[in-house]
Amino acid sequence: MRKYILVLIFLLCGMLFSHAQYYYNIDVNWGIVGTPRQSNMLIEVQKENGTFETIINSNTPPLQQRLGINLDSPIIEVTGRLAYFDGFNASCSSAQTYDYLNNCEFGFGLTCLVNNDSSNPSLAGLTATIKPIQILSPSVTENHKICNIINIPIETTCSNALEIDKWYYKIEGKDEKYLDGHDGENPIKFDVTEISVDPDDYINKAVQLRATFKNYSQDVIRNVDLVLCSPNLVPERTTIKNETCFISNDGIVVLTFDDNVDVANEYKMRYFVYDANANLNFDPEKENPPQTSEQEVLDRLIMVNDGTGYFTGTLPVGLGAGNYKIVYQEFFDAGDGSEAIIKGGGLTEPFEIKRPS
Fold this sequence. Notes:
By secondary structure, the chain is mainly β. It is built from 1 helix and 24 strands. Strand 7 (about 105-115) and strand 8 form a beta hairpin. The longest helix is centred in the N-terminal third of the chain and has 15 residues, at about 1-15. The two termini are about 50 Å apart.
């Protein structure tokens, strides 16, 4: 079931990013000194595909504004124009074209001077800053555990911020709804109970978040794979049994967890056994551990019949005398040779298997 969900997510993301869009924030500051009868300010861009587009054309100074635009092709040139007529047959005009430098911030300035009389000057000035915003594609394989706060960012190059307006969510088979209380958030952080208190509503179902922006007409959609939380180790219930005979290699380790693995969705538990002093530089919650000679898979855990609701998993192979630690992970294996999907895991404290004296 899970591999079909992943294929669907890939297809949706492919559709979303198949049509290139180029986003820019443009901060415009147009000021005047004097009382002109007429004044005009224009900013125009030439795009890589050879076409031109007017970004702003205004006759009403002063103006201080942030514009958000999305274009079908990158900017290669920027033109600024100013015109000023003061009503006394005195005027000025100024225009300049700049090669657009595709860095994180591109700025230019322009001045139109009618007279420089210190007692009654007449002039207009324009400054503009262009910041490209390229929205980065999300990771499509990350699971979001419902016991944690769901954290969904919309990331851009250059860390140029998108001004998010509102967030909406849609659960497969249901209408889209507004996600209240998160206006302007990036990343959005919410508890899954804000969309439903019943996990059956969203587990193994397509869930989408949609962000709208203050300056852009095109929305951005994020597909969210919500999963049940992995069992937590109950370390005080770990059971160690020593070797029964010298070099019999039959030491036993039993780990206890507060819940079973997600058997209904074909998740399993796996153990990786290491020397207690092994340097393990990875995140057992997300990453595949280094290979080891002892690694075992448990199809399910066994419920403890003592009213606690706990489950146990016994290492299927015996251990010889020594000091060890175990990486445990709940995972899903599609069975087609692809990398395992890790839902959660952890690392035990070091423990000792002793041999009889």
